[in-house]
Amino acid sequence: MAALDNVKLKDVLADVASGSLQLPDFQRNWKWDDDRIRAIIATVTLDYPLGVVMTLQTGGATRFRSRTLTGARPDGDPAADLLLLDGQQRLTSLFQALWLNAPVETADSRGKPIQRWYYVDIAKSVGPSADRDEAVVSVPVDKVLRTDFNRTVVLDLSTTEAECSVGLFPLHLAFDAQRVNEWKRAYIKADEDRNWDLWGQFDEAVLQQVRAFQVPMIRLAASTSMDAVCAVFERVNTGGVPLNVFELLTATYAGERDYVERTGDYYQLPVVWREIKQALASKYPVLGRLDSGLENGLSSIDFLQAIALARTWERKQEGISATVSCKRRDLLDLPLADFVRLAPKLADAFAWVGDFLERQCIVRPADLPYKTQLVPLAAVRAILDTKVDGLGAEEKIEQWYWCGVLGEMYGGSTETRFTKDVEQLVPWIAQNDRAPETVTEAFFFADRLDTLTTRNSAAYKGIYALLIKQGAVDWHHTGAPLSPGRLDEYGVDVRQIFPKAWFRRGNSDGLPTSSIVNKTPLSYRAAMDMTGAPSSYLSTMIAASDMRSEWFDDVLTTHLIDPEALRESDYERFYRDRSKQLQDLVHSAMGKRTMLRDLPGDDV
């Protein structure tokens, strides 16, 4: 239910000053620049339409922590009657410029913070309405306008007498009748030869328009649901930034009166999330780099989605809910009590996910195939707890994970797959039920190897990790297989086996040259020696390793490479042999047959 009526601007600004009209805490602080503020003042003085503002009546089931508009300093800590959903920019600008006895906090055209007082030129304002924008002027905080790098004063409004002498009326007095009259007397006294009718014209054309100006206001009923508030806000918000569910829940949880009464303070969701994320990312960098911000990697929305999946699973088992889900509605309907109960479980679950990824040799953010796939995985861990620690359960989770990565199942819309994976993975692990669709519907067509050329592909990152996991030994640091803990230390990355320069002589035999087939995880030090033909650089690397040639052949085979093809710089033999070995690697990880290519001479 919503009502639309017109409210006098004076009454709206009075409500802002008293704290009766406040902002829900999910509203971001926005600041209009000086030009836009002058333009909206001109709009009001001309009685042009301002645009509808939207408010939400308080007192319903949906309670938000609120805060006053910038500049409002009401006595005590008044409870809001209305929350402003749309119109923050307009009302804050008008409140500061026309109501407060203080300079306006704004910004110049370059976005630099400045403070300004706003005036209207009496003579110009009674002219054609098209000139009204020019009639509204702003001056610095000291009310002195300077040019020539602040060396020359061109306008000094630091006293009432100075204001009157140049005929510039201070707009912050507009709604204070007593101060307007005092200023009027000073204005008349300042110049006895002035056309006294000018003030009357100004009063009628400007001040009366401002005092009578009406603001069209939609009032949403207190019974409006949170989901509806969110949807309405996003449709009318002119800031261009979508409303974040986390911000909405932050304001909602902070408005939980029962929690405040019980603990003496409001619930601070951002603080709780910061502690969780910092603990996770400090131990598991794959979940995000703290120096890149809290939302880097695992985000607050990812965490909330995992909680929603676990909660709706519980509710489905109890017969309360029909389905497992983590849509925005489910996040908005997440009660504070359930968040407080489930957040520690999901924090532990994501820590388990970090350990799981390390066992898959995925420890750096850039090497993570899908961040989204971690959401249902954490939810399943939270639901099953230690039931996922058994050998059989680990094998199933690994198969599901690699089917998702190598089958590239998480490349599109994910919410439906989240639901299916949780609903199907849990019984598959716990009761040996049928395998999830992510497993049964995942395929890896062998010719996909030819097109996996960059980290944009999850399967590309997946094969890179699998090569490390199955025991690849670096070609310079040959003492032991590569391990997750050594990747950063050695500067391990995807390196091209047959170098780019080698192909300039037309040695590719028409085969792809930059696909994952011709790449492997190697250290930066090894890559420095990989110039020219493989037959050439191998002799250098063998000598540096102080190993027998046949021993170094064993090192090459840990990368699923035919040593003889590499020694002979036979790219076609190398490419076809390694393609088959990578197919087997993928086949093993997915636990199913791969879709093989039909190559001339292949017996398939």
Can you offer a commentary on this structure?
The chain is an alpha+beta fold and 604 residues long. The protein has helices at 9-18, 34-45, 88-98, 122-125, 132-135, 160-166, 177-190, 197-212, 226-236, 245-254, 257-263, 269-283, 300-317, 328-332, 336-359, 374-384, 391-406, 415-430, 437-440, 458-469, 487-490, 524-528, 534-545, 549-557, 563-567, 571-590; strands spanning 2-8, 21-24, 53-57, 66-67, 82-86, 104-107, 113-121, 136-139, 144-147, 152-156, 168-170, 214-220, 493-496, 519-522. The strands form four sheets. Strands 1-12-3-5-2-4 form a six-stranded mixed sheet. Strands 6, 7, 8 and 11 form a four-stranded antiparallel sheet that branches. Helix 13 crosses helix 15 (336-359) and helix 16 packs parallel to helix 18 (415-430). Mean pLDDT is 89; it is low at 596-604.
Please tally the β strands and state the result. 14
User: Termini separation (Å)?
Assistant: 67 Å
Number of helices, where a helix is a run of at least 4 consecutive DSSP H or I residues: 26
Poorly predicted runs are 596-604
Average pLDDT reading: 89
Query: What gyration radius follows from the Cα positions, in whole Å?
Result: 34 Å
Query: What spatial order of strands do you see in the largest sheet?
Result: 1-12-3-5-2-4
**Structural class designation:** alpha+beta
In percent terms, what proportion of residues is strand? 5-15%
Major sheet size, sense and barrel closure: 6 strands, mixed
